[in-house]
């Protein structure tokens, strides 16, 4: 089982992802520079958070044209796993692996805080150890995390069970008050129709060690590992 963490100029959560996989979970993981073409040896590709290409034009809009992204699209189309966290989620929407777009937060400010999110779909490889409706606390840190999708797209997401996480209250209620950035229907993370590509704005890698105050994010990485070890759902 091998993980690849893609590094773009301006990535800054690549090291956090790498450390969680190597130090905390003792897994085989490489940093993969953005001009790499052959990524066949990786089972999971992680597009980490950060400010790829300085967020110029639009977050993720330049990184999407990196050489590695053609290979990431092929990797995803083979059914292999891809997870995009924050800037990685933005890149996945820009490249078309996930629908919708991440636009400026509705308060036009960069938001950095830990928020509760509710697991809406626990049948993905990334959430199979979660309970449906489980609330986990995960940090967000973004200026453009306001998820937008048109009504038709939203209907598709709902029909195909592609909404994986929503921002919620501590008790798990989905309400306006618990929506930090204006996202449509409090959406914090979605997957593609096949379920092998996940994009999420919250940062599970920043909440994966008790020493750092919170390990709620670890359940995602452990789900991926269990999925790969079993090769199927139970
Ligand atoms: N932490 C991140 O990945 C930030 C993503 C992007 N730079 C934004 O501000 O929205």
From TrEMBL:
Chief location of this protein within or outside the cell: cytoplasm
Pathway assigned in UniProt: Purine metabolism; IMP biosynthesis via de novo pathway; 5-amino-1-(5-phospho-D-ribosyl)imidazole from N(2)-formyl-N(1)-(5-phospho-D-ribosyl)glycinamide: step 1/2
GO biological process: 'de novo' IMP biosynthetic process
A GO molecular-function descriptor: phosphoribosylformylglycinamidine synthase activity
Pfam short name (any one): GATase_5
Record key words, sorted: ATP-binding, Cytoplasm, Glutamine amidotransferase, Hydrolase, Ligase, Nucleotide-binding, Purine biosynthesis
Catalytic activity: L-glutamine + H2O = L-glutamate + NH4(+); N(2)-formyl-N(1)-(5-phospho-beta-D-ribosyl)glycinamide + L-glutamine + ATP + H2O = 2-formamido-N(1)-(5-O-phospho-beta-D-ribosyl)acetamidine + L-glutamate + ADP + phosphate + H(+)
Gene3D superfamilies, sorted: 3.40.50.880
GO cellular component, one term: cytoplasm
Cellular localisation: Cytoplasm
E.C. no: 6.3.5.3, 3.5.1.2
Active site as annotated: 86, 203, 205
Record flagged with keyword ATP-binding: yes
Assembly and interaction partners: Part of the FGAM synthase complex composed of 1 PurL, 1 PurQ and 2 PurS subunits.
NCBIfam families per the UniProt record, alphabetical: FGAM_synth_I, PRK03619.1
Function: Part of the phosphoribosylformylglycinamidine synthase complex involved in the purines biosynthetic pathway. Catalyzes the ATP-dependent conversion of formylglycinamide ribonucleotide (FGAR) and glutamine to yield formylglycinamidine ribonucleotide (FGAM) and glutamate. The FGAM synthase complex is composed of three subunits. PurQ produces an ammonia molecule by converting glutamine to glutamate. PurL transfers the ammonia molecule to FGAR to form FGAM in an ATP-dependent manner.
Protein name as catalogued: Phosphoribosylformylglycinamidine synthase subunit PurQ
Organism from which the protein derives: Caloranaerobacter azorensis DSM 13643
């Amino acid at each position: 089982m091998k993980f690849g963490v893609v590094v773009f100029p301006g990535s800054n959560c690549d090291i956090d992802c790498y450390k969680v996989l190597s130090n905390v979970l003792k897994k085989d993981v490489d940093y993969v520079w953005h001009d790499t073409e052959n990524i066949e040896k990786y089972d999971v590709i992680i597009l980490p958070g950060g400010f790829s290409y300085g967020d110029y034009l639009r977050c993720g809009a330049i990184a999407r044209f990196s050489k590695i992204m053609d290979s990431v699209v092929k990797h995803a189309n083979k059914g292999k796993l891809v997870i995009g966290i924050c800037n990685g989620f933005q890149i996945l929407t820009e490249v078309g692996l996930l629908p919708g777009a991440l636009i400026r937060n509705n308060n036009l400010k960069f938001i950095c805080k830990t928020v509760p999110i509710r697991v809406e779909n626990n049948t993905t490889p990334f959430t199979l150890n979660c309970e449906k409706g489980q609330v986990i606390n995960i940090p967000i840190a973004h200026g453009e995390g306001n998820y937008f999708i048109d009504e038709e797209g939203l209907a598709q997401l709902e029909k195909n069970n592609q909404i994986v996480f929503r921002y919620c209250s501590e008790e798990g209620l989905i309400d306006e008050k618990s929506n930090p950035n204006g996202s449509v229907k409090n959406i914090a993370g979605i997957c593609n129709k096949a379920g092998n590509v996940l994009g999420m704005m919250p940062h599970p890698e920043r909440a994966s060690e008790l020493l750092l105050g919170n390990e709620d994010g670890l359940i995602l990485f452990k789900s991926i590992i269990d999925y790969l070890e079993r090769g199927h759902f139970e």
